[in-house]
Amino acid sequence: MRVRQLESFVCVCESGSITQAAAILNIVQPALGSQITALEQELGVQLLDRSPRGITTTPAGQYFLEEARDLLGRFATIKKNIKTFNNPEPGHLSIGLTASLSMLLAAPLAQEFNRQNLAAKVHIIEDISHNLPERIAKGEIDLALAFDIASHKAVNCTPVLTESLFFVTGPATEFNKQGPIDLAELSRATFVISTEKSHIIQLVKQAMEQLHLPLDVTYQIESKQAIKGLIAQGTASALLPYGVVAREVEAGALIARKIANPPLTRTLFLLQPSGYPISGHAEAALKIIEKFIAHLADNIAFELVEPADEQRLYRGRTIQP
Asked: At what angle do helices 29-43 and 3-15 cross, to 10 degrees?
C-alpha cells in the first residue's frame, strides 16, 4: 500500500467519479482505476460500488476512507516536522482562529508572541471552525481554536470555554433595552444573516422550532461591515458572537443582548495534533494561548468550561486562569 494509492482513493471518493478524480490528479483514467483495483485486491475487500450514476463507498470503503484521511494527515505532518531537523532557520508556527476570535485575539496574540521573542515565525490564519480540525490533521496548522467541532482521530479536542450568543440590534429599534432577551422575542424581529449554512443560524432555528416560533430571515449579506451597517440603521437585527460587534457596542452604535430562556451557547475547543508530541515552538505558543483563554473568561460572552463538563465532552487538561 502506497501513499499515492491512498491519495487516489480519497480523491475518487470525494469527487464521486474516477473520471473527475483522474483529471484532478492529472493521470489517465485506466491507471487510476488500476490503482483502486490493486488496493481492493491487497485489502481483500470491495471498497467502492461502481454504477453509471457514479462511485459510492461500501461500508468497508467508508471506514477505509476515514482511516486514509487520517494517515495522509499524519504523513503530511511528518514531512513538515522532519524538515526542521536540517533547517537552521527559525521554525514556522501556524495558529488557526475563527473570524470572531480573530477580532478578539489576533492582534494581542501577535503582539505577545513578538514580546516574548518566540523562536519561530508565527502565522495567524483565519478560517471557519469546520475546516480547522482537518487542517490540523493535515499539518497545515499547529494549534487552533474552534467552535462546536466534531471529534477527529488525528486531533486532540479540549473544550475550554462556552460562549453566549447575542441578539444584535440598533439603538432606534423597539428591542433597545438593557439585559438579556428571551428567545421567544426573536420571533418579532427581522434578521439579516451571512449564510443559511451558518452554525449559529442553524442553532437558533432549531431552538425556535422547538418553541414552534418563526424566524424571519429577510436579508442575506456576506459582508460583515454591511450587516453591521444594516443593523445600525434599524432595518434588521442579527444573531452574532460578541467579538464581531464588540467595538460597535462599546461605542454605542449597536446594542448586544444575551439570548435567554433558554440561553444559546456554543463550546470553544483548543485543537492540537494527537499521537505525537508537539514541537517546542508550539508548546511555547500553547502556554501563551492558554493565558489568553483564561483572560477571555472575563469577557461578557465567555465562561470557563467546568472540569466535570470537560470530562463529559472530551478528555483533555483543564485550562487554569
From this structure: 110
Question: Does domain 162-265 bear CATH number 3.40.190.290?
Answer: yes
Domain ranges across the chain:
3-79, 90-160+267-316, 162-265
Count CB atoms within 10 A of the CB of residue 69. 21
At 79-116, the pLDDT tens digits run 766 765 655 445 678 999 998 899 889 999 988 888 88
**Topology of domain 90-160+267-316, CATH:** D-Maltodextrin-Binding Protein; domain 2 (3.40.190)
The answer to whether domain 3-79 has CATH 1.10.3720.10 is no
Could you tell me if 203 and 230 are in contact, meaning their C-beta atoms sit under 8 angstroms apart? no
User: In whole angstroms, what is the distance from residue 278 CA to residue 81 CA?
Assistant: 10
DSSP 152: B
220 pairs with which residues across the strands? 193
The pTM of the full predicted model, rounded to 2 decimals, is 0.66
**Percent of the chain residues topping a pLDDT of 70:** 91
> How far, CA to CA in Å, does 258 sit from each of 11, 129, 157, 227, 247?
43, 22, 26, 19, 16
Report strand pairing: 238-241 vs 155-169.
antiparallel
Spatial distance between the Cα atoms of 221 and 253, rounded to a whole number of angstroms: 19
* CA-closest candidate to residue 307, choices 298, 319, 297, 296: 319
Cβ(288)–Cβ(143) below 8 Å: no
